[in-house]
């Protein structure tokens, strides 16, 4: 069942007599669970990397019970507040003394077992809370979340600063480099800690993976429960993509294609809108493969798909009544006005029919109702975003993906193996299902290798997301005998880099031997040729960049001009072509150097060049073919124009007619016969460049060209000389590669992010947070009090010290601060009401100043707007809410989801609480500001926005 890497016990170490079990379970333990418990009883730590639904929580429960048995405290951390709330409820049913700390909720903080978010534990470690001395065990749930780009660093900080000598329980999804992570933990806590890696080899419930191609009337088994890829079924699925496969019943292709019951032929073509998901849900329900979770990557799509099932009812009358009862009980403690919110009224009819929605835009109380109903089997079909797969122990029989691609903020890409495993892992309920069913909907051709990598590629490697934050740096500077390099050198990022050192050294030695084995004659000739060629190319690029400035070249890009085109992005040559139309720019404000001019060119492509051109077929406006050549009309950017010739022809009256095309082809063919690739080009004088510096560069080019022409490799190249030059080039390439690798080896001795630290220190000095000796100043003590996850500690500190908030009404303060915790993108047509523009302008000025100092210190690159992350779209909403408006009224002021508003308000409350502490600190000592922040909390912390969790 499991693969266990356990450290051997020293021979001199006596066998321990184990006490009775700290807790017993009403079910037989799996091998990996028993091995984990044995390691904990031996006093060691464990990393349990197990498949979804394997039963990792059992190990956590035992870790808690053992610590309590030994009269020690235990901390359980999770990545998200919702998961912390659920674990608090679960543990409270088993243990007497359980507390909760999540920033916005604190319950029984003196308990022996404390459930908290990782950020709370990090803050406690920096402050040196006395309670930590009593901790015997720390449990990290979902530790693979450490790879998260923005918040993963919190896990590394916390693990590095954990108390020495206590036990650690790391719970994770399967990760390929689990031993590497465990070795890192041991390295930073030696000699106190041994970490046993315990991994499950397979899922308790195997999965079957199906494809549903757009337009098909069935699903196709492509990976069976033994993880075998079914090539025949995959090919069939790709064949029917976008086609109507007709009706039918039963199974085909050896269980490959499952037809939908009652499917009708004759629809023709690919289906549009919600129809495909309707068909899949009907198939799933007909074959009793529910409950089903349908994963989409957009909130709006979840809601559209749920509404599309309006005509279907999956609950009987008794289940309908139960849903109604649970829902009414959950809403009972809300205000009367809040119970009639559109979001609530729209959801209850769906839930009564057994259909649920779950995404971050929902009100938290609605998400929790959906979770409880799903656990009770009263929601048969759940439409969700991928956040539902994080930590929530809510398996289904079937999982459906509406797409296998998602937009990650930068690009539309295929899911990684890890993402797919995390979500598909919800399929298959232990003890209930023989297999779990996973259905992936696809609407385009997919390569088999892509699908194999997706469905069987394994989990994502756990790589460090460590980065420096100002809060980390300032907190470490504040502690005696510790500096930021302490954290950097112990980070997982540093460990992973050092781990590659021996292999890098071996590769360097191998390269050195390879270089020694290559002998070169006439090295002086080749050195001179290489040096001259490199300088010549550099100078020619300088000339070209000047000559191709729009103000010089655009007037010559008229119809009929002969141009040489080389695609700038990949240097693909299209050869010589004929300009079809004048150069176009997106603006009409003259010849701007920054405008993206485009030009249409008729390009004659033959042999290899034709093959290159065909690869750009999506860019073609038209494609003409003759017996001898292919003529393409292609749209290029101005920087794709390599050379502008002196020649310009008269275009045919109708260049698209057959006679016109023939004329263009004959003209280009004649040009090729007469000049080859050396068509005379326009000179600088001809295009009107009169610049002494430019003339100086041209003279240097002439001199370099003369030296190059005298080089023996150009003047009298023999076959022997050419072979010797090939050896020289091969050795030079290896030497360059060796130099790069040796630089990497040298950098290994330095801590990661050394340069970034120096740049951050410059910023902190410029803004008066530290002095020249790196001693912290008054502002730093305030910044250390602010531990927001948005890394806004410097901005908030500057806001306090500028005094902008001192004379501002409390309602406007909370409205302004909402810009820093808001995640709702500002709509294109958004207009900020006039009363908020003044405060917002002052905030932007502070943001811009910090950004300018950061640019001058080399920390960030110039370009882009630093104020883009300051989002004012919910300022008015927050202001009116603080003024006492009803929630049903404020949601009408924005297009944001209700859940996004609530999440913003709760993060705002946490920020206000931290600012209140900062304002009261000796560094500021403003009771007036302190009281304003507390009043702000009082104004916003009410009604449905801060409704208590159903798990508490």
Describe the protein in words.
The chain is of the alpha/beta class. The protein has 5 domains: 2-200, P-loop containing nucleotide triphosphate hydrolases (Rossmann fold, 3-Layer(aba) Sandwich); 205-297 and 385-458, P-loop containing nucleotide triphosphate hydrolases (Rossmann fold), CATH 3.40.50.300; 308-378; 557-682, Elongation Factor Tu (Ef-tu), domain 3; 785-946, Sec63 N-terminal domain-like fold (Orthogonal Bundle), CATH 1.10.3380. 44% of the residues lie in helices and 14% in strands. It has 35 helices and 26 strands. A 9-stranded mixed sheet has the order 1-9-2-8-7-3-6-4-5, sandwiched between helices. A hairpin with a 4-residue loop joins strand 18 and strand 19 (412-414). Helix 19 (501-516) runs antiparallel to helix 26, helix 20 (523-547) runs antiparallel to helix 24 (692-710) and helix 34 (898-920) runs antiparallel to helix 35. The protein is globular, with a radius of gyration of 34 Å. Residues 6-11, 244-273 and 606-628 have low confidence and may be disordered. Residues 276-480 form the Helicase C-terminal domain. Residues 37-193 form the Helicase ATP-binding domain. Residues 245-257 have a biased composition (Gly residues). Residues 1-22, 245-271 are annotated as: Disordered. One of its GO terms (cellular component) is nucleus.
């Amino acid at each position: 069942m499991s693969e266990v890497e356990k450290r051997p016990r020293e021979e001199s170490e006596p066998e321990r007599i184990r006490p009775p079990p700290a807790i017993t379970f009403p079910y037989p333990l799996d091998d990996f669970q028993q091995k984990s418990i044995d390691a904990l009883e031996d006093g060691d730590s464990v990393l349990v990397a197990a498949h979804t639904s394997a039963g990792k929580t059992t190990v956590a429960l035992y870790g808690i019970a053992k610590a309590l048995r030994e009269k020690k405290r235990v901390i359980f951390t999770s990545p998200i507040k919702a998961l912390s709330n659920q674990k608090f409820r679960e543990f409270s049913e088993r243990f007497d003394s359980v507390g909760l700390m999540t920033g916005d909720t604190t319950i029984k903080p003196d308990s022996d077992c404390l459930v908290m978010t990782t950020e709370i534990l990090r803050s406690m470690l920096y402050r040196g809370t006395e309670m930590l001395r009593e901790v015997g065990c720390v449990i990290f749930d979902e530790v693979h979340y450490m790879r998260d780009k923005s918040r993963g660093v919190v896990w590394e900080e916390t693990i590095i600063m954990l108390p020495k000598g206590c036990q650690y329980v790391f719970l994770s999804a399967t990760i390929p480099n689990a031993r590497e992570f465990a070795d890192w933990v041991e390295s930073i806590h030696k000699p106190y800690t041994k970490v046993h890696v315990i991994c499950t080899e397979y899922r308790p419930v195997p999965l079957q993976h199906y494809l549903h191609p757009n337009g098909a009337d069935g699903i196709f088994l492509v990976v069976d429960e033994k993880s075998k890829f079914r090539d025949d079924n995959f090919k069939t699925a790709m064949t029917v993509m976008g086609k109507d496969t007709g009706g039918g019943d039963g199974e085909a292709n050896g269980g490959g294609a499952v037809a939908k019951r009652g499917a009708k032929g004759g629809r023709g073509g690919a289906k549009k809108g919600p129809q495909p998901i309707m068909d899949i849900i009907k198939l799933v329900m007909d074959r009793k493969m529910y409950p089903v979770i349908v994963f989409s990557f957009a909130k709006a799509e979840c809601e559209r798909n749920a509404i599309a099932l309006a005509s279907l009812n999956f609950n009987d009358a008794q289940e309908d009544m139960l849903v109604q009862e649970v829902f009414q009980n959950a809403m009972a403690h809300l205000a009367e006005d809040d119970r009639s919110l559109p979001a609530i009224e729209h959801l209850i009819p769906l839930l009564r029919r057994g259909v649920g929605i779950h995404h971050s835009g929902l009100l938290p109380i609605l998400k929790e109702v959906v979770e409880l109903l799903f656990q009770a089997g009263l929601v048969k079909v759940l439409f969700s975003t991928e956040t539902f797969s994080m930590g929530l122990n809510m398996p289904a029989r079937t999982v459906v993906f509406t797409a296998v691609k998602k937009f990650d903020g930068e690009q539309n890409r295929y899911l990684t193996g890890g993402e797919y495993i995390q979500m598909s892992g919800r399929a298959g309920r232990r003890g209930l299902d023989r297999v779990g069913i996973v259905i992936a909907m696809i609407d385009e051709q997919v390569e088999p290798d892509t699908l194999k990598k997706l469905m069987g590629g394994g989990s994502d490697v756990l790589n460090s997301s460590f980065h420096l934050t100002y809060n980390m740096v300032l907190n470490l500077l504040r502690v005696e005998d510790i500096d930021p390099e302490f954290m950097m050198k112990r980070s997982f990022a540093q460990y992973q880099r050092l781990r590659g050192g021996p292999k890098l050294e071996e590769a360097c030695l191998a390269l050195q031997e390879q270089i020694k084995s290559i002998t070169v004659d006439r090295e002086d000739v080749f050195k001179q040729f290489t040096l001259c060629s490199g300088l010549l190319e550099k100078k020619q690029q300088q000339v070209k960049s000047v000559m191709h400035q729009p103000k010089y070249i655009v007037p010559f890009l008229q119809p009929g001009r002969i141009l040489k085109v080389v695609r700038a992005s990949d240097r693909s040559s299209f050869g010589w072509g004929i300009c079809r139309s004048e150069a176009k720019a997106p603006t009409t404000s003259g010849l701007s150097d920054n405008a993206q001019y485009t030009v249409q060119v008729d390009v004659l492509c033959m042999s290899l060049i034709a093959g290159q051109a065909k690869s750009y077929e999506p860019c073609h406006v038209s494609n003409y073919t003759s017996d001898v050549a292919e003529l393409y009309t292609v749209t290029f950017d101005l920087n794709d124009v390599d050379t502008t010739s002196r020649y310009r022809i008269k275009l045919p009256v109708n260049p698209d007619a057959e006679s016109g095309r023939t004329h263009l082809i004959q003209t280009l063919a004649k040009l090729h016969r007469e000049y080859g690739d050396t068509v005379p080009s326009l000179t600088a004088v001809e295009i009107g460049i009169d610049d002494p510096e430019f003339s100086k560069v041209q003279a240097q080019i002439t001199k370099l060209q003369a030296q190059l022409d005298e080089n023996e490799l150009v003047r009298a190249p023999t076959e022997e000389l050419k072979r010797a030059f090939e050896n020289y080039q091969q050795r030079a390439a290896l030497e360059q590669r060796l130099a790069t690798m040796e630089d990497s080896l040298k950098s290994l001795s330095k801590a990661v992010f050394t340069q970034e630290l120096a740049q951050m220190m410059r910023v902190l000095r410029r803004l008066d947070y530290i002095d020249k000796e790196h001693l912290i100043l008054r502002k730093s003590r305030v910044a250390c009090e602010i531990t927001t996850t948005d890394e806004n500690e410097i901005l908030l500190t500057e806001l306090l010290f500028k005094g902008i908030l001192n004379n501002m009404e409390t309602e406007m303060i909370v409205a302004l601060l909402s810009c820093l915790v808001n995640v709702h993108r500002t709509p294109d047509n958004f207009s900020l009401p006039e009363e908020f523009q003044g405060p917002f302008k002052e905030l932007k000025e502070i943001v811009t100043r910090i950004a300018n100092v950061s640019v001058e210190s080399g920390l960030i690159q110039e370009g882009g707007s630093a104020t883009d992350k300051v989002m004012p779209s919910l300022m008015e909403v927050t202001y009116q809410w603080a003024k006492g408006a009803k929630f049903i009224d404020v949601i009408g002021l924005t297009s944001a989801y209700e859940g996004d508003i609530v999440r913003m308000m709760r993060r705002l409350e946490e920020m206000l609480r931290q600012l209140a502490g900062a304002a009261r600190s000796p560094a500021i000592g403003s009771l007036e500001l302190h009281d304003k922040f507390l009043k702000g909390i009082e104004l916003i912390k009410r009604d449905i926005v801060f409704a208590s969790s159903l798990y508490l």
